Amino acid sequence: MNTLFINPALSDDERRKRLFDGQICVYPPGPASLALVEFARLMIEEAFGELDPVTAQHQLTAPEYECLLNSFKPAFINHARSKQLVQAILLEMGCDPEKTYFDVPRMRTATSNQFLSRGIAYSFEAHRDTWFSGPLCQVNWWFPIYEHESGNTMAFHPEYWAQAIPNGSEGYNCHEWYNEGARLAQNPGVPDRRQRPQPVQALRLDPQVRVISPVGGITVFSAAQMHSTVPNHTGKTRFSIDFRTVNLDDLQAHCGAPNYDSACTGTTLADYYRLADLCRLPPALIAEYEAGTPLESATYLPQTLQSEPF
């Protein structure tokens, strides 16, 4: 990882190539991302009423806050309007509607001082999405709903782009995780003993890169990027949206970012919708990814801008 591309004039094919080499693309707000922000804000602000959502944690108990999040987050994720606006974003960004597939947008909250950092407001430590059964060709799209700052955003950890990290992904299968989650939901009070994939030893999180974009400004990166939620001590909750895409050509060719340390099984590909018409991926293609992805060698030289230091 050595380059941040700011509003690059790249085709989607060119963009994905650079992302799979470890680079990151940052785009200004567009009409569709701002429309999704507005839709999210309507749901958030209806739930919080007269309270400012960014500082509401100081007027509520953690259970009250969690209850409010549960009242609108799942609705946002599964709303038809959310899907429509993600489709509009991807079309604005030049994605091929016949070959691009996307999953539903998630709304994230990162509260200050660990006010609420579990469950629906889980605060992610350093990880790669590929540890969670994400395919190596997965592309992540992220943008803030309200203004954010360096102290409450997310961070990238470029030192680990091409470095294998001992982690707990070997025991992770997304289907088993979802099934156990459904069982726990039907049995309140039963402790959740599931282990998320995470590093088994402390990482050096510096140097790190934090992208501060305007509301609706989109950061696009590979699922193989090591990234984390920045420990938030700002007194303000960060609200953001993220979703993921895959390209049919990449899936069929089994290409994407290198895999040095993801040993999980299962695949999240059944969650994706075709940009053109919301059709699902072919079951036979999904099945090719259920067994996981072989590891690469431990040495990797990026193909893009190799000679330029980060």
Automatic annotation (TrEMBL):
SUPFAM superfamilies: Clavaminate synthase-like (SSF51197). It comes from the Bacteria. This is Phytanoyl-CoA dioxygenase family protein.
